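S1.2 Input.
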Amino acid sequence: MGQHGRVRELTQASKLQNVVYEIRGPANAHAARLEAEGHHILKLNIGNPSVYGFEAPPAIVRDVLSALPEAHGYTESRGIISARRAVVARYELEPGFPELDVDDVYLGNGVSELIIMTMQALLDDGDEVLVPAPDYPLWTAAVSLAGGTPVHYLCDEADGWNPDLEDMASKITPATKAVVVINPNNPTGAVYKREVLEGIAKLAAEHELLLLSDEIYDRILYDDAVHVPLASVAPDQLCITYNGLSKTYRVAGYRSGWMAVTGPRKHASGFLEGIDLLASSRLCPNAPAQHAIQAALGGQQSIAELIGPGGRLLDQRDAAIRSLNRIPGVSCVVPRGALYVFPRLDPEVYEIHDDSQLVLDLLLDEKILVVQGTGFNWPEHDHIRIVTLPWARELETAIERIGNFLAGYKQ
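S1.3 Output.
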């Protein structure tokens, strides 16, 4: 207590002013209060597979359990070598993926930790990073927390949500250090065309930008979609590829991710030394979850039966699209990957000035929780994101209720 009996106020750090994570934002907190009052909330806001009955593959669980007696000490700061070698072997099967060594792979407590480490190692105050709009908001937050400035390039809804290369090029300045690509995309489900990825790589080469590619959904693909790793179209450029077990292998709570560094790096020795320093200062990734990686990458790829004809994830995506198309004034680009739909609410039909208020009103009226489009740094108040993890029948019922709510909604 101070000299005059007052307690010094602890204010929020100014660097958090531009940090938002609406997926677990105020509406989510309000939903928790409603649950505490006894209401059932249908949570269509977080891509958490286990909540909807997607069980972890037994082989992964067995490997983690069998390793537990020896997994109570620190590991090497980059992660155990057997898991990193499994990551290398995975990418050796990717056509055109550049050569990778175990020392080029870092394991992390989920991809989130690795994204934050990268930005802390890369950015000085005022440095700019190109981030897609819409984006997974952790990318924007990580840039801001590291003292950088996120600059959002637009993805084109009329072109299947592929990045707009002209818009991207117009936003490159002397302060730009890197470009982020999220493919398949969260929240849109877009799977980017090869020519678009080649265009991004060309821009990065021209302006000497680091390529950062978030590919966590690369094996959750529908119909005839083909995922092209960004590193495979940019073998002669420094590129970091991020991936992990949370979605494809349904073990989000294990927090088991990795990043792989490819391309020339002589010019980036200081940056990479910074990553080594940060990897060491966090001591190591959590040890038990590292033992899940080898079993996951080397065993049966059980995601295939979920995304193919008759597969549950494909059926749920189709059910969501059918139901959304029945709502007047609502349209949705068909996702070709990931676990979400990102429908547009026609401003000529729905006069929405504040999409966060829309989400809160929907929660209060229908006990359904979604995320507003601006929560993904989309500039307009005309989209929402809906998770497609519930059973198809449950999704159809929920989206019908959303349509009924919208029919009488005014702000």
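S1.4 Remarks. The longest helix spans residues 392-407.
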